[in-house]
Amino acid sequence: MDIFGVPVQALLGQVLIGLINGGFYAILSLGLALIFGLLNIINFAHGAVYTAGAFVAWLLLEHLGIGYWGALLFAPGIIALIGIFLEKTLVSQIYRQDHLYGLLLTYGMALIIEGGFRQGYGVSGIPYNLPETLSGGVNLGFMYLPIYRGWVVVVSFVVCFLVWYVIERTKLGSTLRAATENPALTKAFGINVPRLITLIYALGVGLAAFAGVLAAPIYQVNPLMGSNLIIVVFAVVVIGGMGSIMGAIVSGFALGVVEGLTKVFYPPASQLVIFIFMAAILLIRPAGLFGRKQ
Questions:
Q1: What is the pLDDT of residue 202?
Q2: 185-219 pLDDT per residue, tens
Q3: 244-258 in b/e burial notation, b at 16+ Cβ within 10 A?
Q4: 45 is a domain residue
Q5: Does residue 54 lie within any of the structural domains?
Q6: Residue 253 Cα distances to 50, 235, 287, angstroms
């Protein structure tokens, strides 16, 4: 059976591939939305943090013998701790400044991080082996799905749902939002507002590092892996609505699928379709699909 001259098997295969890419878009966009929505910082270092997560996972394997599962736990934690240090020493200094200061600061951080890895390891990709439990594949009839890529889709959904639930449906999430929307009043209730703000930043960069560990076995580890992705992720966040948690998740997965289907119907546009969507959304709804008017 064909749809517009394209076999259904090919379409379903591209939908799955789109969900895999969409999983990375969603997790990275979620981290960006957290930092912008709650801290009002445009974190241009997000792609570099994604790269750092992959490199830390590889270094843990090479030097400490910590495999994939350990790296999936420890690498985001290590990056989150580094994020806490950076937030305390640098990022906290520009909270009350114009957005431009935050963009310039985080862009400089990105250049330093990526430049350090490029200087130390070059620009060639470094292989990162799959864990044995996730090697091999499954025949779905219309395509042969590698188990690891299926795992990426599942864990992306789970992580995005958990973060959304914590931020939007729990007392901790309410406190985090209150600490950023009205810090003076929140502090009057005896809540340590600076600690909560640091926690938000650590969670945002930890999510980027988590995505980097997930991506390492698929895309290999190299200093440019984040810079190639960050512009697309920013477009996804703008489409979903700057600062919108649900918008980041939904638009991340949806645009991954749209990008995959575009590769079937009109491959030359596959690298542009997300930016075309962004331009259209900004014309129709400047706040984004899930964003609120200021």
A1: 94
A2: 888 888 888 898 899 999 999 999 999 999 999 98
A3: bbbbbbbbbbbbbbb
A4: yes
A5: yes
A6: 18, 13, 19
